[in-house]
Amino acid sequence: MEINQMKYIVCIANNNFNISKAAEKLYITQPALSKTIKNIELMTGIEIFTRKKGRLTGFTPIGKIIYDNSIQIINIENQIQKNIIDYKKKESNYISIGILSVFMPILYEKINTLSHKCKENKNIIIDIVEYNYWDLMKKFEDEQIDIIITVGYNENNNETINHTILDSSYVAIYDKNNHHFENNSIKYSDLNKKTLIYPSTLSKSKTLIDGILDNNKVECKRKIHLMNPESVLQTIVNTDYLAILPQIFYDINSIKYNNYLNIAEFKVPIPWHMDIVINKKNYNKSKIVFEELYNTLKIINLFLLKI
Known about the structure:
Elements: H1 3-14, H2 19-26, H3 30-44, E1 49-52, E2 55-59, H4 61-91, E3 93-100, H5 104-122, E4 124-131, H6 133-141, E5 147-151, E6 160-175, E7 185-186, E8 195-199, H7 204-215, E9 222-226, H8 229-236, E10 242-246, H9 247-252, H10 254-257, E11 261-266, E12 271-279, H11 283-297, H12 299-305
Parallel strand pairs: 3-4, 3-5, 7-11, 8-9, 8-10
Antiparallel strand pairs: 1-2, 5-12, 6-10, 6-11, 6-12
Helix pairs in contact: 1-2, 1-4, 2-3, 5-11
């Protein structure tokens, strides 16, 4: 059993076995979480949860043992991470930057350059780590990471400071030879009976798009989930698939795919933005890096406007 699966089980218990509330905490949809739990039970060959009229009500005896063991393993993993970070902080002027995995190809070079600059000029050691959305937010909340670069952060959080690095919106991307949308504009109903490709599990984008499809009663022929945006673009070339991605990921690869693919904007727009965030209580310690990083990365937005 993987540690992420253990985290799912623990999260469900911590939310009184309410699948919907647990899914919200895990940043996935309720059907996806239900399916994952069923897959875990099929894989292990045991029933972990008791049920009444299809709802989870508690643990079976073996499920309680798995829960207890999962708590121990998760705590050990957290303690290992904390020990590593505490050691680094004692040894140097250490700052950790957590990045959403999907952003690494876009941001790593610039952040790494800044890291070397800070080490040489200010004796600041920057540790660059990448995570999926759920793990990134959890480690930030637990103060294991000083600064995060994520998608669509909650601007109403009074305990943090955040700046927007990139503004974009979700668009439908398609092969020019297989689809045509008047004025390059698309309605959600146009997605009915289509094969859709969009970001994978443990992604905030997936939760958002699933919710929009459900609210608009869109019944897809098939859903394919990939983590890497360029893999999404490669997959739809010469097919009738439709991809849903923030436009920035198309813009970055437009030179490569412009002869094959086109984009259509949703008539009801879906906003998207990349944010850099820091806890207020850590701001004084990491202010120089936070502000320099923001100023370094916002140049990407200016670059994309020239494409």
